[in-house]
What we know:
By secondary structure, the chain is α+β, with helices and mostly antiparallel strands. The protein contains 26 helices and 16 strands.
Amino acid sequence: MRFSTDIIEQVRSQNDIVDVVGQYVHLQKKGASYFGLCPFHNEKSGSFSVSQSKQMYHCFGCGVGGDVISFLQKYDNLTFSEALKQLADRAGIKLPEQDDSPQAKAMRDKRQILLDINKEAANFYFRNLKSKEGQRGLEYFRQRELTDDTIRHFGLGYSSISSDSIVRYLRSKGYQDAQIIDAGLASFDEKRGCHDKFWNRVMFPILDAQSKVIGFGGRVMGDGKPKYLNSPETMIFDKSRNLFGLNYAKNSRAGYMIICEGYMDVIAMHQAGFDMAVASLGTAFTQGQAMILKRYTDTVILSYDSDEAGTKAALRGIGILKDSGIKGKVLDLRPYKDPDEFIKNEGKEAFQDRIKKAENTFFFEVRVLQQSYDMNDPVSKTEFHKSLARKLCEFEEPLERENYIEAVAARFNIATGDLRSLVAAVAAQGASVKPIVRPKSGTGTKRAPDDGARKNQRLLLTWLTDEPSIFPKVTKWISPEDFSDDLYRSVATELFAVLEKGEFSPAQILGKFTDEEELTRIAEMFNTNLTQIDTPDQRRKAFHDIIYGVKQAGYERLRSELKPDDPDYLSKMVNGKKELEKLVHADINPDD
């Protein structure tokens, strides 16, 4: 729907971008902006900037940027209307009725069709499980001791041995092959044509937080490969920012959540009454998933398999939770491998007791670290103590570090004073924290080589948004027509118009554009780093050089676009040249 500019601006203005983004990204204030790890690409140092004054976000790493609406669109994979409605609901704003024009309906239908297809498929797989053909799948669930209520609760199903059963079924419902493929339920090749993505598998529907079916996981019956298969990424399914079981776990009153590895672990835990369990979706735990959990709780217990792979996953998860500002603990399931096995052998009361005794993440890391040393060898034991000291240096808060020094000293029978001295000695040697290996939540966008003309234009736009008071000095020499890049010129036109009226809202200017790539480029225009300026003379020179650079680029554009047969060709060329010559020697001071 084409919402009015007024209603869009009302929603935007009543949803502070720092508050909204802070629900998804752990932000820390640095100077005038807030910074955190970018949720749209993998990085080790926070280059994701959120400006409260501009109501915009921009990543200096991958270049992505926009306003509060476009952030929600990109993060939660929503349409503009869906993101606007979510923010309107958050602010208590009632939106006009939805537009039922063919164009608006077509935009909504594309996403809705995929949701409808997945819902139909979930019903098909569920019914198939109870049919004669699905007997093998039902027996598998019976062997895993799942009740009928649990099977119904999670909508578990079975995909037929036939390689085209879901395709044929969905065709009968009127869906086209291309739509079935787009939903992630089918593939196409020249040999087999359009065929099922899942066959001969027990099926686990994956629901989003609003309980809409967005994808599937399937476990093969027999020895086929891969053992587990998940839906591919689609318009409605991003596995790095969804969690299995979240639609139920978000309503848990436990006060914490437990994240484990597999579908069956979650299902077994829910069946036993532990309704706070969720699982990542066939991928390693990501920061995006951590920030989803942060919306519902401030404490997460990691429950991974007790084998080597599970230990590595737990260590990795600890770092992600720390980066996300979430308190973490680790569940010790030994001697059993996973929650499902533990509950079957020990019962839910014993499992609840393990939850109460969940291990502090620091001591879990220390316990794993200790396994690398021979504590009966004095040399190896000393090296372990030095490793402990290096690890204690990770605590920046002196009181917290002191508390851990005392606890570690007591646990490993070390004199507190000796350990404190060792920590001080290690810190004096420049001990640093080993960077945490973070999830690959995406890849950085490849950036085209920059050129001086565009950089000057970005610098001028950034300077104007940082200091609107310089606008009269800029317009003495520059007009929007001097911006050589088409998009920059469009943005400059909008920006100059609002500044002329004495109004200023960079985020409002973003609302004039809808293309994601354009939004990213515009956000960059308003967030370009100005070169180091320490003195008034450096500031004056930088301002002059930027104005001249923009004017020169505009003149070059004029030269390339003007035709010799234009009646004003000569006068325009001469005037343009004169303006540039004036600028060479002009004293342009942004602070006059």
